[in-house]
Prior knowledge:
alpha+beta, 3 helices, globular
Amino acid sequence: MHTVELLATALTAAKQRGYRIREEDLGGDGGGGCEINGQKWLFLDLAMTTREQLAVVLQVLQEEQADASVRVAPETARPIDPRRAA
């Protein structure tokens, strides 16, 4: 599969995970993922090569997967009462 096809597949995966895609010329400074007002965004820098854009998308997807695997159970996330800890 060519890099362009891989990028298209990765962007489809990002959209399926709820990302909105924004493509802009950022001067080659990069792109990445973020959350704005509860909405997930993925910024792609059009000044980057297709291979570099693919790397950005894959990095965002990997980070999200890592975050999802570290989710904490609600009972564990409760604050610890220092009077009861020991």
